Every structure is written in structure tokens, then in C-alpha cells.
Amino acid sequence: MKNTIILFIFTLLMAFTAVGQSVSEDGSRLWLRYEPLSQNIARQYAQKITSCTSSDPSETTKLAMNEFVVAFRQMTGKEIAIAKAAVDGSLVLTIKKNDKQLVSPDAYRMESVVEKGKNMTVITAKTTNGLLYGVFHLLRLMQTRQDITSLDVAESPLYERRILNHWDNINGTIERGYAGYSLWDWDDLPATLSPRYREYARANASIGINGTVLNNVNANPTFITGEYLQKVAAIAGVFRPYGIKVYLSVNFSSPALLGKLPTSDPLDPAVRKWWKDKAKEIYALIPDFGGFLVKANSEGQPGPHDFGRTHVDGANMLAEALEPFNGIVMWRAFVYNPSSPDRAKQAYEEFMPFDGKFHKNVIVQVKNGPVDFQPREPFSPLFGAMQKTPLMVEFQITQEYLGFSKQLAYLAPLFKECLDSDTYAKGKGSTVARATDGNLFPQTITAIAGVANTGKDANWCGHHFAQANWYSFGRLAWNHQLSSETIADEWLRMTFTNHPDFLAPVKKMMMDSREAVVNYMMPLGLHHLFAWGHHYGPEPWCDIPGARADWLPSYYHKASAYGIGFDRTTKGSDAVSQYFPPLNEIYNNVATCPENLILWFHHLPWDYRLKNGRTLWDELCYKYDEGVNQARGFQKIWDRMEKYVDKNRFVEVQYKLKEQTKDAIWWKDGCLLYFQTYSKRPIPYELERPVHDLEELKKIKLNMTNTN
Ligand code: GCW
After folding, report:
1. Ligand 1 pocket, CB under 6 A
2. Atom nearest to 535 CA in ligand 1
3. What phi, psi does 115 have (nearest 5°)?
4. Residue 339: its pLDDT value, please?
């Protein structure tokens, strides 16, 4: 009877939502919308699966089954029972701890089988997490309308730890967060648990993310006080059934700041004991705590150098404290000092001498590029070079340098560009992915991190399309071999619609979007032309008296009457020599250097001829112009999509795309008019003319409050 009532209510609901686009959405359901399918497909699925069962009693398996039942009902309109035993038509979730074919704890198989005349869909895993991932996989197949009649799938993640880094502060702000305040309500914890914690965990589990660093790497020591650990434990309790471990960023001076010790010197016995006791305290509350993330001696953060010690001394001390509990240390390699002639070389110089010296539960976390999450950078030369130390890539999902949540920039192509880059460390094919996933070098730990773009905004990420970046980070962390197109396709289908007339153009818009941002912000390998502090608009002219040279754009573009670009060749800073042959030569030689990085590695005259025959100045103008045209093109594509998208999301994206074009023009005019003061050449006459005046643009000072 109860089921019949539910079904009746559901059918009513479906009849209502069947008109589809007219019901406005706020984006809060992410890619887990489970929209009703067409009758035909719904019928096929409903014939295939009629019940769901598992002999595993765990909470995770229960919630996996519940997820399935609810989603199935929403998509097909059919109610399926959670049965005691497998029958014909069952979805069976089975744990097989010793299954040799399952190559990792998170691995699973999904097969259509016939046993004793019973047609079943069986998901097998070693752990409950594997089952959960398998169920989300099956749901993804259904959401994207794939055939589920003869399944034979085997999956295992290519990185063991797939982690989001939150740069969330204790006061609820988020450093470089563009989607509202932090999800974590520290004042209300541990007593009150926001329902969003669970939603967050569920969304992450659906894409295979299994770790969360809750707080900013610019770490407030308060997070590891007894009071805050209770709060952290409460969050960990919500995340646990979804297979997500919590980690914390720690402040290296905590022994002095919290423990009132006279020093935080990593070789001081009292300091070492303080960390060991702290680890004990943490694990007593959170037995599956993941470990520490550390930003040390970088941008004013304390670290072992303050005591004349090394990164190894610092990391190993923490590693020893965590080791008895199987915790790990993620030690960041984001280090640079103000006086260096080339910031891009520093992480390599500082870390290479320590290769092989870190404790076995330390992994060095390296940003994808050698400078700082720019729209385009070459990969960091540490990848492939540090061969006796596990390394993990850190991507930035939040778009600090790609237009915040104001602009559409689909980042899977950026992530892939790095992961697929050939380091040549062990000959051709030694990609960054293979150099970090345990394929090329034996690694005690494999991991990958992304700086999260989530916040309290209803749609989680500020821009509806920024959800795709969270999604694609998770999917690539699971399987870096997936293509950006595949990920965009599945995300669009689940988040918007399966309609082919929507999918093709919108997918193309996504695929072009990152390159568009590169084009109108900093093409041809230019980098760090950003406005001071907030990093939103262009300020290639920025000059703050007394500021660190390496925080000023002129340090990077080096524009002059002669030309533009950073000479990192053997005749310049020699950063090229940090790469393996033949890449060092490829980058060093202006004739072979990829043109999309040419001004990263070379300082070239304005009349340098590119492969297409244009002068450098003209090509720069063409690229900026192309970027603006691409942004305009996105507006044209989106406006045609009105009939496929609910009103709210349509209008919100439409508005943002309009702003994106305006800001793209601002970028183009700002950069070209400024560089023109050096090149003294006309903008090619066939291109759009500037609509701004350089002096006016120089006066713009945005008051961005939520950036830091
Ligand atoms: O990109 C820079 C950001 C800082 C950030 C730092 C880092 C958390 O501008 O806001 O600090 O990188 O990665 O540590």
C-alpha cells in the first residue's frame, strides 16, 4: 500500500516535471538529478532490474542500495524492492575480500550474469566503497541512457588517494573561493551537522573522490586543538560511510603556538613528542584520519627553514608521528623566494637534492606547473625527475586565474594537458600521469589533489558550468585516461539533458572554453599578467612600490621596445635544463618550442615570425581577438539552447556569458594597448578596434572581498 502511494505521488510529480524545462532549477542537485527517462528506455531498465539485494550489512552498502532505489524510481517511475535474497532481475552487491581480479580496495566489477535461470546484475568489490562506486557507475550508465543488458565492466582507480583541498578558513571565508562561504559551519559543530555535509560526501563518492583536506594550507593552528578536533571528528563521521577520509592542513609552528613550547624545531625532542601526542589525540577521535597537508616556508608560512632545518627534517618528523596510525604527510613543493631570478626553477632546485630522503609515508605535492596555476603552463619539471619520492599533482579546480566563477572555463583539457605531458623521464611515453600513478616508479603512496571550488552557493560552485570542473577532477583522479570530451559528455547529459541538439554545441563550447580564456588573457605562453591581489582582471602594467618582484607581471612578461617573453633558455635562466632530453632541447630551440608556450621559454622581438608567417606582435593581436570572438561565440551557442534548459539555469548562464565577453574585451584591450606602448605597432586593421582607453583601464581597481 505504502509503495502504491509513493508511486502515485511520484507519477504525479513526473507528469509535472515531464514538461521539463519549465521547472526552474537552482543547480543544487549537481549531476545527480536522476531526471525521468523516456518511457522506452525506462521500460528497458525496469525489465532488467526489479530488485536489489546484498548480504553485506554495512551502512555504506545500505546507502548504496537506497541511492539506487531512489534514483531508479525517479528515472523510471518504477519502485524496486530491497530483497532478502537474489532473485531473477536482482541487482546484487557482493563483497569478495580475496578476489584476485580486484586489484585495489576500491576496485569493482559489474557483470550481467545468468545463474540457475536467474538474470542478475552483479557488482563485486573487496570493500563497501567499491560497491558504492559500482552503484554510482550503474546509475551513470542509466542517466546517460546506455545499454545495461549485458554488462562486463572492471574498474580500478589509477590513484589510490583522490583528494579535494579546501582553502577554507576558520571564520568561514575561503581563500580563492568564488561560491560563497565555506561549507563547514565551525561554530555549529559538532552539535549541528548541516545536511550539506552529506550531500557533499555523496557527490564526491559518485565521482570517486575519497579524501578531503578541510582547511586552508595557510593553516590556522586552531584546527588541531582539542575543541576543533571534536568538530572535525563530527564531519569525518558524516563522510565515513561515503568512503571519504578527512585530512587537515597543519601549521608548522603549532608546537610553539598551541603547545607553548619555546620552539617548533623539528629536531627538538620535545617538539617531536608534541606531534606524536597530537597524532595520538587525533586518531583516538578519528581512527581513519588521512593525514596532514603542509605548506611550509612558502608565502610567509612557518617551516623547518625557520630553525635551520630542511624540508626532509620537517616532513619526516610529522611522518613519524603519523606512521603508527597509517597516516600520511602531503608536503607541498610550492616554494619560491622573492630574490630568485626565475621563480619557475625554485621548487626543482629546492626539492631535487632530497629525492629518496623522505620517510615512506610522505608524498610531495607539486602544482601542475612550475609557477602557479596559470591558464597555461608547461608541467612542473619535478614530475619525472624526483624518482625516489612519491609525487602527487595538485590542480586548482577553483578558477583563481581563469576568471573565478564568473567565467566558463572547462578545465578537463587543462588537467589532461598536464597529465598527458611527456616528461621523457624513462624515454618516450613517460607521461606525468604515469610518473605519478606508480606506473613508472615504485611508489608507496599514489595520490592526486584538486583545490576545491565549492561553497555555500545553492549551485555549489558559483557558475553552473564550474560544477563540471569538480566533476572532471574526480573522474580523472579515478581514470586519467578518460578524454575531456567523454567527461564533458557524461556531465552534460546528467546535469542538463541527453538531447543531441543540446549536447553537440554545448560540448564544443566547453571544449573550447579554456583555450578561449588563454587567448584573451595570456596567449603564446604569457603568464601572470593578473591584477594585484585578487587576480581577476588584467594588470600587465601593475607596479606596486616595494612589492615582491615575483608578484609583479613585469617580472614575467619583460616587455620592452625590443620584444616580450621570459628567456628560460640555456642563454637565459636555463629553466629548460630542468627538463629531460629531448624536451630541454625542444623548449630551448625557438624553432621547435611549442608556440603555445613560446613566450614562457623565449624572449622574442616584436617582429619575430611565427610559423603562420605573422609577426609576433600581429599574432598576439590575433590571439587576443580570437579569444574575444570565442567568448562571443559561447553566447551565440547558449542563446540557442533556451528550449533545452530550465529557465533559471539558462538565464544565470546567459548572464555570466555576457559578463565573460565584456571582461574578455577588457583583457584584450588592456593587454594589447599596454604592450602596444612598447611595440609601437598598429593592431592589424582587419581586427576589431579597442573600445577602451588604456588610461581608463589602468584606473580600474576591483573591490573583491571574497578572494582572501
Ligand atoms: O596561487 C597562490 C594563491 C594563494 C595560495 C597559494 C598556495 C593558499 O594566490 O592564495 O595560498 O597559491 O597555493 O599556497
Report:
1. 167, 175-176, 217-218, 295, 299, 334, 372-373, 400
2. 9
3. -125, 125
4. 83
CA angle 202, 204, 209 (to 5 degrees): 135
Question: Is 441 within 8 Å of 158 (Cβ atoms)?
Answer: no
CA distance 166 to 703: 23
Positions marked catalytic: 299, 372, 400
* Rg (the chain; Cα; Å): 26
Pairing of strands 604-605, 563-564: antiparallel
Q: Which residue carries 524545462 as its cell?
A: 21
Question: Residue 10 pLDDT more than 90?
Answer: no
Q: Judge contact between 674 and 694, C-beta under 8 A.
A: yes
- Tell me the per-residue pLDDT of 449-506, one tens digit each, with 9 for 90 and over: 999 999 999 999 999 999 999 999 999 999 999 999 999 999 999 999 999 999 999 9
φ, ψ at 61 (rounded to 5°): -65, -40
Q: Are 164 and 209 in contact (CB under 8 A)?
A: yes
Residue 470 near residue 457, CB atoms below 8 Å? no
617 grid coordinates: 606582435
The phi and psi torsions of 190 (rounded to 5 degrees) equal -85, -5
DSSP code, position 293: E
Provide the β-strand partners of residue 363: 330
Distance CA 6, CA 1 (A): 9
Nearest CA to ligand 1 atom 1: 372
Treating both helix axes as pointing N-terminal to C-terminal, what angle do 269-285 and 311-322 enclose, rounded to 10 degrees? Answer: 40
Q: What is the dihedral of CA 506, 631, 405, 403, to 10 degrees?
A: 140
**pLDDT score of 708 more than 60:** no
Give the integer Cα–Cα distance in Å for 199 and 30: 10
Round to whole Å and give the CA distance between 450 and 514: 17
Cβ 686 vs Cβ 618: under 8 Å: no
Spatial neighbors of 543 by CB under 8 A, at least 6 apart, are 552, 554
30 has pLDDT over 50: yes
Residues 406/178, Cβ–Cβ less than 8 Å = yes
Q: For a substitution probing ligand 1, which of 166, 168, 175 has the most ligand atoms within 8 Å of its CB?
A: 175
Q: Hey, whose CA ends up nearest to atom 12 of ligand 1?
A: 372
SS (H, E, C) 360-393: CCEEEEEECCCCCCCCCCCCCCCCCCCCCCCEEE
Whether 79 contacts 7, CB under 8 Å: yes
Measured in Å, residue 451 CA sits from the centre of ligand 1 at 10
* Residue 494 CB-density burial (10 A; 0-12 exposed, 13-18 middle, 19+ buried): buried
Phi-psi region of 208 (alpha: psi -120 to 50; beta: other; left: phi over 0): left
Residue 20 scores a pLDDT above 50: no
- The rounded percent of the chain whose pLDDT value lies above 70 is 96
Place of cell 508511486: 7
Protein residue with its CA nearest to atom 2 in ligand 1:
372
Ligand 1 mutation pick, 346, 400, 534, max ligand atoms within 8 A of CB = 400
Q: How far apart are CA 415 and CA 480, in angstroms?
A: 9
**CA distance linking residue 524 with residue 620, whole number of Å:** 7
CB atoms within 10 A of CB 290: 24
Closest CA to 659 of 550, 537, 477: 537
End-to-end Cα distance, the chain:
55
Task: Single out the residue of 684, 689, 514 nearest to residue 596, CA to CA.
Answer: 514
* Per-residue cell: 550: 615575483
- For cell 524496486, what's the residue? 80
Q: Angle at Cα 643 formed by Cα 639 and Cα 646, nearest 5°?
A: 95
Distances in Å between the Cα of 444 and the Cα atoms of 160, 313, 359, 392, 557 are 10, 19, 10, 12, 40
Angle at 333 between CA 340 and CA 452, to 5 degrees: 120
